[in-house]
Amino acid sequence: MAxxxxxxxxxxxxxxxxxxxxxVVTRRLSDMVETYEDEAAVAAALGDDPLIYEAYECEGExxxxxxxxxxxxxxxxxxxxxxxxxxxxxxxxxxxRPSGEVYMGLAGHGQxxxxxxxxxxxxxxxxxxxxxxxxxxxxHRTINDGGEPFVFLAVYDAAxxxxxxxVATRGFAARLYRGPAGPQWSPPQPTTSxxx
Length: 196
Ligand code: M6P
Ligand code: ZN
Hints:
With about 200 residues, the protein is mainly beta. It contains two helices and 17 strands. It starts with 9 loop residues before the first strand and ends in a 10-residue tail after the last strand. The model has no long low-confidence stretch (mean pLDDT about 95).
């Protein structure tokens, strides 16, 4: 197989836009109605069908790599908003080929939920400059729990593949709600911070 070509792009941290770049994911509410618990709130919001999130990749002279051993880097912007008491979030996925992923916050404030098949859950806040490693085997979803666009960079195995099946059938074991005192996991999750 021919070697992939190096790619160079400039990232706008505030927006996630890459130059040169292209949109690779666009999800509106209508693309993910089953994600939200409050069916009446979903029905009410579907008229406007808000843009929940987008993802961008850089556009090089060559295609985005797909071969094992190569890496993909992608920015995602989750817009601020709620459906009922749930914040705008990604659909969430597993990797078809077991492999890890690195997230780094660029702008705004969000959280990530990671879940093993055993049901074990871990959550972490993501702020600009914070990196989270999602090991192989953990389903993952990110959520914007702030008032600004939540922008992050993800780097993962080019051959990882996205598997949405498990998230569609069993969902995640915890949900993040807008509570009177701020974002609140249900069931409650320990506050995860950086190792001291
Ligand atoms: C991150 C990465 C991508 C993913 C995107 C949107 O950028 O994890 O691989 O595609 O978020 O998440 P999802 O695929 O769950 O819609
Ligand atoms: Zn992933």
